[in-house]
Amino acid sequence: MRFMMIVIPKGYESAAPDAVPSAEAVAKMMEYNKALKKAGVLLALDGLFPPSTGARVSYTDGKPTVTDGPFAEAKEVIGGYWIIQVRSREEAIEWARRAPMSNNEVIEVRQIHEMSDFPEDVQKAAEGFEHRNVVA
Amino acid sequence: MWKIESTRLIAAIARVTHDIGIAEELAQDALVTALEVWPEEGIPDNPGAWLMTAAKRRAIDSLRRGRMLVQKHEEIARELEWQQQRLGDALEHSLDQVIDDDVLRLIFTACHPVLAVEGRIALTLRLIGGLTTAEIARAFLVPEKTLGQRISRAKKTLAEAHVPFETPSGDELRSRVEAVLMVVYLIFNEGYTATSGDEWMRAALAEEALRLGRMLGQLLPGESEVYALVALMELQASRSAARRGKNGEAVLLPDQDRSLWDYAQIKRGMTALEQAQSLGGGAKPYALQAAIAACHMRARTAEETDWERIVLLYDALLQINPSPIVALNRAVAVGMAQGPAAGLDALDAAATLAGDSLAGYHLFPSVRGDLLMKMGRLEEAREEIQRAIAMTKNLREQELLANRLKQLEKATRSV
User: Is residue B77 domain-resident?
Assistant: First the structure.
């Protein structure tokens, strides 16, 4: 099963557009990434530019409105993610526990939908759906 | 916790006990201790090192008490104590390297040619995959007791044959790497192609094989075929969601809905294939098979498939692996690239190559029937398909063939 470990770094909601992590933090992160790779669990990872360089497209009555970042109302923003393939939720959480994060930072662990995660009767019941909606 | 640490733990202990069965027991003991101690004292900062220390302490204890049936107890105990000191040292990096080597040794030992193939598979899943005996039994549809016996027999064989706990070198390395890759690919195929058994467990097996492959890529960075096998598995697994229709029926590659393929996985497969090729291994067996799969995955529609290139790749594969199955697949490709008449010639050549060895193999008449049908020789085509139906016991295959027969009869009537 696949999990996304979503990184929510402290203060990233108001970080400058050119903010970059320190060399020390990057070195620690590389070591962690290497451990994920060596265990054969790492599928993908990416880091995101700060929200001040991003935009939000919000929909009201089906009409999109574009707001440029930073987003004053946002308290927690995503800084990056890993996608890992592991055997259980516990294993995913254990990996998240080992990430080199700083004080007050958060990693949210979320499972990625997969057809094979459902028992057979549920898969049968889901047959009415278009497959592509269910299979990520 | 257990899943993350068990392989490294067992590997590090096995290096000193020279017995993977004992190493596994000690590792499990250490985990049981951890489950007792941690809830009270809290989880240590470095749980892996904590477990390693606990397991080695137990190893020393049992050696001292003479419980182990190994020679030179004192020497081993000293080695363990020395390692224990190193654990406390600042040698984090070199220790990491030492454990990597131990894990590699463990993999080579579990896949040792002295073991029966089913024993290698069970042992690999148990020791490196960290699956429970019950899970492996469920995956292979055998009683748990049988599987347990299979594992203990394998451990006993290793001990009796005095298989050294080591990474082979020189000429031996190549063949031993091949043996390991074969085990990984068998595990993958058990998960990916088996038509019976528990769906969830089968998906887990395919995932486990991919994980083993990626691990090996890190441990043996110079071996191109490791990456090639990872590529082959990723590319095949990327089609999983498209392989079954609404009622569970098999959907063959040309008829698959390509929007259901997992393109992130295809990209991982392509990257692994490029790695294999850049290491100079493009002409080796797994790399060629992965390259053939890549030709299919690159085509946005079945019609766009580069069959000429696939024929060339099969030619190369046939040279290093002249098997009738490869020749049969090549004939299909020739039929697509150069027309059914050329395909039929290639197929007959493949049948000659096979001799009697594949006399009962339903794919020969099935492919022959297809080619004849395309050539408009409908009566002969019908006979071949009927022959194929009689040869296969697999219900899904029979279903597919029966559908083909129906199409054929419709075509015959409309002539």
Answer: yes
**CATH code of the domain in which A123 resides:** 3.30.70.1060
Q: Look at A42 and B214 and tell me if their CB atoms are within 8 Å.
A: yes
CB contacts, 8 Å: B3 with chain A: 86-88, 91, 94
B35 touches A: beta carbon within 8 Å: no
Residue B305: pLDDT above 80? yes
Taking only the tens place, the pLDDT of each residue in B341-397 is 999 999 999 888 888 777 778 889 999 999 999 999 999 999 999 999 988 877 777
**Contact between residue A48 and residue A79 where contact means Cβ atoms under 8 Å apart:** yes
Look up the ipTM and state it: 0.75
Q: Which pLDDT score is estimated for A130?
A: 37
- Average pLDDT of the residues in B321-342: 93
pLDDT given at position B1: 62
Question: Does any domain span residue B190?
Answer: no
| Domain with A90 in it | 2-134
Cβ-defined contact of A120 to B4 (cutoff 8 Å): no
Give pLDDT, residue B270. Answer: 97
CB contact (8 A) between residue B218 and residue A85 = no
A58 phi-psi bin (left φ>0, alpha ψ -120 to 50, beta other): beta
Q: Rounded mean pLDDT of A94-114?
A: 92
Find, among A82, A22, A78, A86, the residue nearest to A49 by Cα: A78
Specify if B399 maps to a domain: no
Domain residues for B31?
A: 1-89
The mean predicted confidence, pLDDT, of chain A is: 85
Total domains in the fold of chain B: 1
Amino acid at A49: F
Q: Is the dihedral of CA A93, A99, A104, A109 positive or negative?
A: negative
CA-nearest of A5, A3, A8 to A106 is A8
Count up the domains in chain A and report the number: 1
Q: Tell me which residues of chain B, numbers 162 to 201, contact chain A at a CB-CB cutoff of 8 Å.
A: 199-200
The shortest CB-CB distance from B264 to any of A39, A42, A44 is to A44
Beta bridge partners of A108: A6
Question: What pLDDT does residue B386 have?
Answer: 92
| Residues in chain A closer than 8 A to B260 (CB atoms) | 131-132, 135
Residue B397 lies in a domain: no
